[in-house]
Specification:
The chain is of the alpha/beta class. Helix content is about 45%, strand content about 10%. The protein is built from 17 helices and twelve strands. It has helices at about 20-25, 35-45, 80-90, 90-115, 140-150, 165-170, 175-185, 215-220, 255-270, 280-300, 300-325, 330-355, 365-370, 375-380, 385-395, 400-410, 425-430, and strands spanning about 55, 60-65, 70-75, 155-160, 195, 200, 205-215, 235-240, 275, 380-385, 415, 425. It has a four-stranded parallel β-sheet. A three-stranded mixed β-sheet has the order 2-1-9, with no helix packed on it. The chain is elongated, with a radius of gyration of 24 Å. The relative contact order is 0.15. Mean pLDDT is about 90; it is low at about 435-440.
C-alpha cells in the first residue's frame, strides 16, 4: 500500500508539481500546519463553479461533478477557521451574484409593505443563490434548489462551520442521512408535498458542501449512521493538535495578486462544458480498488472495504476537477494527489471513528487503539497460525476466520510457509513502498 492508514501519522501530501500548481496557490496563504487538510476541503468549493460537466467513471457510466463534499475535523483552536477564509476568496463570484439576487428580494419586500391590503401584491422575484448562508433552513434550501434547477442546474455551495448546522438545512437530524445521500448521488430531494400555497417541487440536489467540527462533535453526529451509506459518502480531513508550540501560526492575505491568479483557474472551470473520458483517472481508480481490497484483507475488515469504494469515487471527482484546472491536461502529479485524497480520507476515518465501525462507544482518543489494524504488521516476521488466531481474538475477530485470512495473505503473496511450519512475511510485503508507479498517458 502506498500510505499506511493504520499509522498515527497522517499520510504526507505530495508536493504540488506540474499540473497541480493550483494546489500550491490555494495553500500559499494558509499557515504551514493547516496546509494538508485544506487541500481536499478546497476542491469542493472550486468544483462548485462547474456546470454541465460529466465524466465517465471506471464503471462506464457518466457522472456530474456536483455532490463533492468534505468534513474538516480538528480540536478547538487548531485552525479550522482558515477554511472559511479560503472559501470566501474562492466564492467571490458567487457572492457578487448573490448580492444582486438579494437586492431583488429586498426591493420586493419593500413593495409588499407599501402596497395596501386591497391592492394586488407583486410576485416574488425569481431568484436563486449560489452561495447561501450557513443558517439556511430546509424550506429555503429546497426552494433554492428548485430555482437553481429552473435556471439551468447550477450547483449551490454551502460551508457549514459547525456540522450540527446540517440538521437545520435538512429539516432535522433524521433527515440528514437521506439528504446527504441525495446530494452525493445527485438525486432528487424527495420533497414533493401539497401545501396551502400549492405543490412544492422535487428538485435535483446539485450541491457541494463542506463541514467543520471537533472530533467529539463529529463522533456524536455520525454515531448512528456508520453503516447506512451516509457516513461513507463524506470525505474527511483530520488534523490532530500536534505538539504544543508557543507561537501563533502565521497566515497570509488573499490580496489582489492572489485573487488575480485564482480567477484564471476559476475561468477554466466556468468555461468547461461537456462530457469527458480521462483514461488515466480511471486507471488510478482501478489501481486504488485493488489496493483497498488488499488493505481490507490485511485488517480483515469488511466495513473498511465498503468505505473505500466511495473514498475512491470522491478522490476520482477531485482528480477530474484538477484535470480541468490544469487546462484539461493530465499530469503525473494529478494522479499522485488523487491517490493521496483517497488514503487521507480513509486514514481520517480510521483515526477518528475506527472503534465505531463495529458500534463502539469509546472516546475519540481510543478510536485508533480499537479500530481496524494491519494484522500482518502486528505479527513478528515469522509467526504461527496460533499467534494470528490469538491476535484476531484480542481484536474481537473470530478464531474461525484465521485460516481464511492466512489463505488470502498467501494468495496475495504477502506470506509464505516455511519448512518449520511457520509463516513468514515475503519480500513483496516487506519491500512495499509508500510511493508506487502512477499511471500516465
Amino acid at each position: 500500500m502506498q500510505y499506511d492508514i493504520f499509522s498515527n501519522i497522517a499520510p504526507a501530501m505530495p508536493k504540488p508539481a506540474k499540473g497541480t500548481e493550483i494546489c500550491k496557490l490555494l495553500l500559499s496563504q494558509a499557515s504551514k500546519d493547516m496546509r494538508e487538510p485544506l487541500v481536499p476541503m478546497a476542491i469542493p468549493a472550486m468544483a462548485a463553479h462547474l456546470s454541465d460537466v460529466e465524466f465517465m467513471y471506471s464503471d462506464n457510466k457518466y457522472y456530474e461533478m456536483s455532490g463533492q463534499m468534505g468534513h474538516l475535523i480538528g480540536p478547538s483552536g487548531v485552525g479550522k477557521a482558515q477554511l472559511t477564509h479560503l472559501v470566501e476568496a474562492i466564492m467571490r463570484p458567487f457572492r457578487d451574484h448573490d448580492e444582486i439576487e438579494y437586492m431583488k428580494l429586498v426591493d420586493w419586500q419593500r413593495q409588499m409593505k407599501t402596497r395596501g391590503a386591497n391592492k394586488e401584491k407583486p410576485e416574488r422575484p425569481d431568484v436563486s443563490f449560489w452561495f447561501p448562508p450557513s443558517d439556511l433552513t430546509n424550506p429555503a434550501f429546497i426552494q433554492n434548489a428548485m430555482a437553481l434547477e429552473k435556471h439551468g442546474g447550477r450547483t449551490q455551495y454551502l460551508n457549514l462551520p459547525e456540522v450540527e448546522m446540517a440538521d437545520k438545512m435538512c429539516g432535522g437530524h433524521r433527515q440528514v442521512s437521506q439528504t446527504i445521500r441525495n446530494i452525493y448521488d445527485c438525486q432528487r430531494a424527495g420533497a414533493l408535498r401539497a401545501t396551502a400555497d400549492g405543490v412544492t417541487g422535487n428538485p435535483i440536489l446539485r450541491v457541494n458542501i463542506t463541514f467543520s467540527s471537533t472530533p467529539d462533535a463529529a463522533r456524536t453526529f455520525y454515531k448512528k449512521d456508520m453503516t447506512n451509506g451516509f457516513f461513507g459518502r463524506i470525505p474527511f480531513a483530520y488534523k490532530a493538535r500536534g505538539e504544543r508550540k508557543g507561537r501563533i501560526p502565521r497566515q497570509g492575505s488573499y490580496n489582489e495578486e492572489f485573487l488575480k491568479k485564482l480567477d484564471k483557474y476559476i475561468l477554466r472551470l466556468d468555461n468547461c462544458k461537456g462530457r469527458f473520458v480521462v483514461k488515466p483517472l480511471n486507471k488510478i481508480a482501478d489501481q486504488l480498488a485493488e489496493e483497498m481490497a488488499g488493505i481490507a484483507d490485511l485488517a480483515d475488515d469488511d466495513v473498511l472495504f465498503e468505505l473505500s469504494h466511495r473514498s475512491i469515487f470522491a478522490a476520482w471527482k477531485k482528480g477530474a476537477t484538477l484535470w480541468i484546472l490544469n487546462d484539461q491536461t493530465w499530469s503525473r502529479s494529478i494522479g499522485e494527489f488523487m491517490i493521496w485524497f483517497c488514503y487521507y480520507d480513509l486514514w481520517s476515518k480510521v483515526k477518528v471513528f475506527g472503534d465505531m465501525f463495529k458500534g463502539g462507544e469509546t472516546q475519540q482518543e481510543e478510536a485508533q487503539k480499537r479500530g481496524p489494524k494491519n494484522f500482518l504488521q502486528e505479527l513478528p516476521h515469522s509467526f504461527s497460525e496460533q499467534q494470528l488466531e490469538a491476535l484476531r481474538v484480542s481484536m474481537g475477530k473470530t478464531k474461525e476466520g484465521t485460516r481464511h485470512q492466512i489463505s488470502v495473505w498467501t494468495n496475495r503473496g504477502l506470506i509464505e510457509l516455511s519448512e518449520q511450519g511457520l509463516y513468514s512475511k515475503t519480500d513483496k510485503y516487506l519491500k512495499a513502498s509508500p510511493k508506487v508507479k502512477v499511471h500516465s498517458e
